[in-house]
Amino acid sequence: MEPLTIGCLGFAAFVALIFLRAPIAYAMAIVGTLGLLTVYDFAAIFKFVPFEMFSQTSSFTLASLPLFLLMGYLAYYADLAGDSYEAAKAWFGRVPGGLAVGTVYACAIFGACSGSSLATCAVFSKMSVPEMIKAGYNRKLSLGVVAAGGGLDVLIPPSIIMVVYGVMTETSIGKLLIAGILPGIVYACIFAVAIAAACWWKPELAPRTGSVDTSWRAKWHALRRLWGVVALFVLVLGAIYAGWATPDEAAAVGVVGAAALLAHRRRFSWAAVKGATVDSAKASAMIFLLLGCAGIFAKFMSVTGVIATLTKWVMDSGFPFWGLMAGLILLYLVLGCFLDAISMMLLTMPLVAPLITAHGQSLVWFGVFISMMVVIGAVTPPLGLNCYVMKAAMGKDVELNEIFAGALPFVVLMLLIAIIIAAFPGLSLWLPNMMMGR
Predict the structure, then answer these.
(1) How many CB atoms sit inside 10 A of residue 23's CB?
(2) What pTM does this model have?
(3) pLDDT at 311 exceeding the cut of 70
(4) Per-residue pLDDT for 11 more than 80?
(5) How far apart (Å, rounded) are the C-alpha atoms in residues 195 and 132?
(6) Per the domain annotation, does 344 fall within a domain?
(7) Percent of the chain at pLDDT above 70?
(8) Burial state string for 148-187 with b = 16 or more CB within 10 A and e = fewer than 16
(9) Is residue 433 packed enough to be buried (19+ CB in 10 Å), middle (13-18) or exposed (0-12)?
(10) Are 152 and 184 in contact (CB under 8 A)?
(11) Domain encompassing residue 290
(12) Domains in the chain: how many in total?
């Protein structure tokens, strides 16, 4: 049997395992290993598979991943999310849909210390959703804001998705992290304007509330409490941007800074340190397992000629670049219904990245675009993990279908943001191109 035929059959088997609800890491490892056995002998595979898993997960660049996760969890225990919400509420509480607008900006602010959209959704589903519902806000609006707003953590650095993408495509992680800043700001602003406009047009969505103190005294007091978030952001991203530190070194400094904030706020305890360490270790282990198994599957796709054949077919077909981008948008919308963000990236990057480079496009810009696309999958049924995390955090107070229904209008906005990122590469590339030591 021809290697290309074996590769296509292997890919079909992988898709079948996914539909049978097999864990994606195991599906990639099983199909990749068995597929390679049809090409090489057992002795070679016995040596290659462990080596490939080791090489995929032992890159020093990946050190930033668990460190950024740990920094985010320490920031959560230091209650930086609470400070972010109080500040956003004081500044935007009186505009139409003020609490919802404040939630969006609070997610953006907290995103400067946390690289996980799931963590953001869990925190703000407990913090802001009950307050919005108590103030008479529409339930679906209240739930949708948090489900979709949590995606800001994927663009605003530090971002775990960006780190994974950078490792897979051998792209500068420092540039990727910096590249997400302006698109993240655009994301937050479009959401805020859309919410305010909808609540102005239909006041019943969000009644004006007088219980929020929006005096200048309250605003400056809330703003002063954000010094910890600003310090962490400047400490980590400023060092990367100025070329003083690599992402790994900056992440380590960020962990020390978050721990110092925890101690400064008298929240430093064994329970907090243990909780942050265990949570970050669990998340890191899952990501590293996915990376290792993806390496085996990608090698199988490569040696059987699937990747090279697909790349050649697309290039020879004469599709315009925008036709390719439209196809990718459709592909990721479909994949987002069945796979989580990291799995989508691990599955598709070996196939898609060569197409982008073949068209002479920047992988830094494409990293921002693809991060935006996988975020959409986090709020679309049936597998939208942000919605499941909110359901788990709120328990019986809310139904899962309510969360998905609330997030649906925001999916349209997220698609618009993805198109803007695709259409204006300079939005993503301006800051990275000005980095020192680049």
Answers:
(1) 15
(2) 0.82
(3) no
(4) yes
(5) 13
(6) yes
(7) 95
(8) bbbbbbbbbbbbbbbbbbbbbbebbbbbbbbbbbbbbebb
(9) middle
(10) yes
(11) 3-433
(12) 1
